[in-house]
Amino acid sequence: MKVLKFGGxxxxxxxxxxxLLKLIVNDDPKIVVLxxxxxxxxxxxxxxxxxxxxxxxxATAAIKNLEEKYANVxxxxxxxxxxxxxxxxxxxxxxxxLRSFSAERFSVKEERxxxxxxxxxxxxxxxxxxxxxxxQSVLLxxxxxxxxxxxxxxxxxxxxxxxxxxxxQHSDCKLFITQGYVCRSFAGEVDNLKxxxxxxxxxxxxxxxxxxxxxxxxDIDGFHNNDPRVVKKTHSISHLxxxxxxxxxxxxxxxxxxxCVAPVQEAKIPLWIKNTxxxxxxxxxxxxxxxxxxxxxxxAKDNITAVKIKSGRMLLAYGFIRQIFExxxxxxTPIDMITxxxxxxxxxxxxxxxxxxIVDKLxxxxxxEVDSGMTIICVVGNKISESNGVAARIFSALANIPIRxxxxxxxxxxxxxxxxxxxxxxAMEALNEKLF
Length: 436
Ligand code: ADP
Ligand code: ASP
Ligand code: MG
Prior knowledge:
Blueprint lengths: L1 E5 L7 H11 L5 E5 L5 H13 L3 H22 L3 H19 L8 H8 L1 H16 L5 E3 L15 H13 L6 E5 L2 E3 L5 E3 L5 H12 L3 E6 L20 E3 H9 L10 H7 L3 E5 L8 E4 L9 E14 L9 H11 L7 E3 L3 E6 L5 H8 L4 E14 L9 H8 L7 E4 L5 E7 L3 H12 L1
Parallel strand pairs: 1-2, 1-7, 2-4, 3-4, 7-9, 8-10
Antiparallel strand pairs: 5-6, 9-10, 11-13, 11-14, 12-13, 14-16, 15-16
Bound molecules: adenosine-5'-diphosphate, aspartic acid (ASP) and magnesium ion.
């Protein structure tokens, strides 16, 4: 069985939903994971934020706007009036639910239910369209199998067992449609896998069923060597290893959710990136195979905060770094980069929700400096930190860029640099020009 995930643009209009049939209707048994239609999750985030700010009437107006958009999609998608009618009845239920939330009693629980509506609607519309076209398919509710554990990680045992049960109930069916992004929390409440999480859903499902391959269908012809939103003249890479793709996704390549590679890597399932607009293009194959030696790609992660702790006590001391790390651990704040000198430690975080408390505690150890508005630029390739001349090439490309931190040799695949976000674009352009 294969798992195919289609992103927001790939289901972004009635026309795209119709075009999807060519890609999913064939003899291969498959689970199709759909995102919300493009723009929908942003609208739902906005609606939730208006309710949180107690702006009930503005939220109602935003809901009405979105409802009109969906009414137009449904009107265009179905040829037969009975299907159009069924779709509007079902959409009505989603929008009545959105309208039922009161700004007076609004919590994160309600917000998560709101955010789940996009994927619930796109899969319902697509599945009904398949039915209208005479294609046999089953709508698998992600809320019945996709669950997180106590540590907010996918509960693989539960997911595997529930999926096995669901699939066994329809052993004659070859085509299953399900929601990306949407899941349940450990407590059983509606939750999600964070923005861009449909990629992650697909790879979790692929690992759970031992899929032959997982395909991520998106709006570009594969994983590019640099961020096409920032740099002109990027090109698609035909092959990446799991480790390379994982570093790039973690360090900001928006094409893949940061956690998406791990489940398929562990299960040794090839991960393809394909372009819905150009289905015959090769795309990118991500697998365990590695090609040695050279620089493959550059990615960047914004909104990074650097924290420096400077202390004479560090000199010749042991246990100092552990104590510093423990402060971050106490506040469940992951550290991305770290560099040390004899008397100082610098590290970076992207979750600043507990920064004030962290800084207060760190002051026990020495003088603390905080710089926000930083960007990590990550250069990736198999064994690049062991290849001769790579460092020289990177640093000569960045000769005119002030670099705040460097992490080299931490992994064999990645060299990371911290710069002020104002230098992100020139740095990425310079790397693009000089490295490829
Ligand atoms: P989807 O809605 O299909 O999940 P996304 O918008 O999440 O699509 O991801 C695809 C987009 O990621 C591309 O359109 C491109 O702008 C952006 N992107 C960022 N970095 C890269 C990269 N290295 N290679 C390809 N696309 C990238
Ligand atoms: N719809 C969700 C989002 O926009 C998940 C996804 O598209 O992957 O973030
Ligand atoms: Mg995405």
